[in-house]
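Run: sequence + zinc ion -> complex structure.
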Amino acid sequence: MPSSKPVSRTVKKVKPAIKKVQSKARKKAPAPEPELVPEVIAFRAQKPRIDSKHAQFKICIKKGGIHRYGIFAGEDMPKNRKVTEYTGERINRRETRKRSEEQGSMIYLFTLDSYWTLDGAVGGSGAEYINHCCDPNIRVLVTKGHILYMTKRAIRKGEELTVDYHFSKEIERIPCYCGSPKCRGTINVK
Ligand SMILES: [Zn+2]
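>> structure
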């Protein structure tokens, strides 16, 4: 266990969420739903790096984030602007299930819709290192099959970038240590 947060437990907890995805009818990728609130299924840190071609602002990765590494603003950012895109290999439900069960490997899975998941471990932009916070400064916009990380408010240089992972309330609770006054005590939604 590399740090204070339960890495392998995080992976374990993804199973119920995936089952939920499996229960839906098999079909090709549906049109993106603007109201969809994506769920970061699992998060695990490895050899952190940022692919700056996806970043619209200067961002940097360093230790000392909420959870080990974090992504920090390298410059001031106005509200409601694209910061970067969550990229990764596009995998189907079967592959998502397989990878989520491979606890020995690094896992960064982000549900794009009911069928597709992006695996940030393969071709990730660095957005996969953005930590969870219950009062985040980044919001997620899913549009045309892309997962965009937008500023939710103005962000000052040096601030850590955070996003709400929205873990399902139907899976085991994962404690949150974000430290926000609005912290709900768990990464799961209530
Ligand atoms: Zn919290």
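>> summary
The chain has a mean pLDDT of 78. The first strand starts at residue 40 and ends at 42.
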